[in-house]
Amino acid sequence: MTNIAIFSGSFDPIHNGHLYITEEISSRLDINKMFFIPDLNSKKTVADYSHRIEMINIAIKKISKNINPECWIIKKKFVKNYMFRSFCDIKRENFGSKIYLLLGSDSFFYLDSWQCFVDLIKQCVFVIILRDRSNRVKVAEKIRIIRDAYDCNIYTFDIDTLNISSTIIRTKILLNQSINFLVPGDEKKYICDKKLYQNANLNAFRNNLDYLKKQVKNNLSEKKFIHSLCVADQSVKLAEYYKQDIMKSYIAGLLHDYAKEFTSTEKIIMSHELGLELDGVLRQQPDLIHPFLASKIAQKKLNVNDREILDAIAYHTTGRSGMSIIEKIVYLADCIEPNRTYSDTIKIRELCYKNINQAMRNRLNSVVSQNLMRNRKIHKFSIEAINYFKMFNYSKSS
Ligand SMILES: [Fe+2]
Ligand SMILES: [Fe+2]
């Protein structure tokens, strides 16, 4: 008997993680024919359907021949219930075969929104690929509900996806970073040739990134430069999670400590030159000048004019009342980037992905208590921030 697998997903773009899953599932379930069906819903995808088809056709050439991979082209008249209609066509063309439907755990949560979901679930075996460790309990609960309601077969496989995701690849392209070894070489060439996943509005920023990196490198020690790159990367991760602007978060993270290693005198003189007013606390504790000065330098010397970026740089040390999400992201990224070993880093790292306001409150409280113990003055922005983050209800996630 032929064992067929249908791999459904956005494939935006298809990557080596998908190819690895294909090989793994095929050897476990003895699959001898694999159909890739890209999501037709353009609202959820970035690249056009035709490009995603082309990338699949290029990428699946790398899959073992005995799996017989094929990209299934959806007939336009079936747009509304393409999954079920495609399944019926595949079943008819491969009469007598056993059919498995592979789904990532993300797609699985939306399963019951599919048209003809009930017909589909009764006629094929569902295989859920567990990728994100954090949603396992939710997947198990969803499976229990579906099993209780319908007579159906659903299995889960725990497969290491090499920590690659389409989101990571799109972000790297946006930031002009290498995607070598994340997608097959020929697919990478296609993405470059067709300029996929680039955003015309961000081209000015992208062209500036190399210049900004050079400036940061020239002004910081190696240790601080690496810290800045790590804060930029960590800011992107949080921005992806909280659906914020990736490019703005990256630039704010990259520039946040630009003025950190200037001497106290340099900080005071440059503040004066750039029109940055210093209050009593800043004058007494010149290290506290560095975030505000970095923001001014970014604006006046590096031509960064975006208010959100400038504010995220300016308030990355004191915080403030009414912080924007990007401000919170950079503040917390500074605390949790992988080289940080503060006593509360592990706890804050966890909280960042559960409740960003609670993470802010905890970190602010801890910084302020440490500063009080060291007999340092607390800036009014930090006091206002602490009072601000007291106002949230921390029994709910936000
Ligand atoms: Fe800093
Ligand atoms: Fe920093």
What does this structure look like?
- The protein is α/β, with parallel strands linked by helices.
- It has two domains: 3-191, HUPs (Rossmann fold, 3-Layer(aba) Sandwich), CATH 3.40.50; 200-390, Hypothetical protein af1432, CATH 1.10.3210.
- 53% of the residues lie in helices and 9% in strands.
- It is built from 19 helices and six strands.
- It has helices at residues 16-29, 49-59, 82-93, 105-109, 117-123, 136-149, 166-174, 185-193, 203-219, 222-241, 246-255, 264-274, 280-284, 290-300, 307-314, 325-336, 345-352, 356-373, 380-390, and strands spanning 3-9, 33-38, 69-71, 98-104, 125-130, 154-158.
- Strands 3-2-1-4-5-6 form a six-stranded parallel β-sheet, with helices on both faces.
- Helix 11 (246-255) packs parallel to helix 15.
- The longest helix is centred in the middle third of the chain and has 20 residues, at 222-241.
- It is elongated.
- The protein starts with a strand and ends in an 8-residue tail after the last helix.
- The structure holds fe (ii) ion (2 copies).
- The site of one fe (ii) ion (FE2) has 7 residues, from helix 14.
Descriptive keywords:
single chain; 2 domains; Rossmann fold; 398 residues; Hypothetical protein af1432; binds fe (ii) ion; alpha/beta
User: Which overall shape is indicated by the principal axes computed on the Cα atoms?
Assistant: elongated
**Intertermini distance:** 50 Å
Distinct small molecules bound, one entry per kind = fe (ii) ion
- Supply the CATH superfamily name of the largest domain: Hypothetical protein af1432
Q: Compute the gyration radius: what is it?
A: 25 Å
